[in-house]
Amino acid sequence: MTARVLIVDDEANLRRMLRAVLEAEGHEVFEAADGDAALGACRACDADVVLLDLAMPPGPDGLETLEHLRREHDDLNVIMMSGKATLADAVRATKLGALQFLEKPLTPESVLSTVAAAAELSTARAENRIWRTQLGGDDEIVGPGPAMTAVRAQIAQVAGTATRVLVTGESGTGKELVARALHRGSPRSKRPMVSLNCAAVPRDLLESELFGHERGAFTGAVAKRQGRFELAHRSTLFLDEIGDMHQDAQAKLLRVLEMGSFTRLGGEHEREVDVRVIAATNKDLSREVERGAFREDLYFRLNVVPIAVPPLRERVGDLPALIAHLAPRIAARCTRHPRTFSSEALEQMSQHHWPGNVRELANVVERLTILGGPESVSREEVAAVLRGSVALKADPVPPSATAQPSLSGALEAYEARLIREALDQSGGNVSAAARSLQTDRANLHRRMRRLGVSRDDTNVS
Predict the structure, then answer these.
(1) Whole-number Å distance between alpha carbons of 157 and 92
(2) 4 has which bridge partners?
């Protein structure tokens, strides 16, 4: 992944070396010899990443320049460089928003890996801005019914505090939307919320993702790396699927929550952080505590204020509002005209069990948007799309009017059945189910989302 990189250093030879290394990897490189020139250069080139020297006599030093850059460009990724930095310099740079601190003499490997990580973060932020623009602010929690009204009231009560929140609910109910609403309503909202899906990170890498690592901490650690706690300093850290975190990481997470400090993997120095943690899970953590799979002391630390997000089947009265919210945004993303839904189509949808919750609903609306014509969505179209997912609780269409399932619908139904059987046999463990199906966990998660299959939609007791 390439980026526009601005090098700010008073040593011309170092700038030339960095330019050669970065341009060889396809990055577009710009230069500035001091802090004063850096501000104008950053505006002119619209840099994604800045490599900034700490000491640049006689003008403003790197920390002053960093402060000015961050004031003008709040989400700019700045990487500090120095051969004489003190711990106090590193702490101040982190507080001012520096993404990373590279020690001189620099190595091509450390520069390239750090710039690549910064470029990836910059691209993700840009895509997120585009996504929100296209969807018209899709972080909105939609639902006029009493269940979601109560959830919004809870969010309003606790958002402005530093209290930890545990968000519970089935997959696809919108737990991350609740976390974002909590962050958006807090004094920390000027800084981006940092997220980590605990189930999506391999066990051996989870601690590095959380706490970062020093160079050489393990095989492949060619450079220092900040963890999510450092990135979330003075902001919010959202830990999704916290119930899948292994015991070793649970113990270290507990210590950070108790002490407000941590040590990078392979490091020696304690680092203090001010982070509000919001966790989410689709598991019953009290039951996981009873099984010995989750630490009781960590559970109590996280579950200060619980917010339960209800499944869609318990608030089908919200379907019209949800569809009205989703349809135009999905149509814009798919470059289609939004379709209206007939009252018969809405009635048909209200009979569905919605095991995949709002995520499944969005998939269904997208299929109907792409595959249908300009006319209103009919009951028959809805029935045909839902037939390939999960059986309706009660199909109001007379048997004589029911169409023969399509080949793709039959294949999807068969695939969903195989996945549910594997989840049943593994006790709801997605990793074990993936192994039994001879696939990887990430691919199985994607298929589950597409088919509207949830771990909670199994026969696991």
Answers:
(1) 33
(2) 28
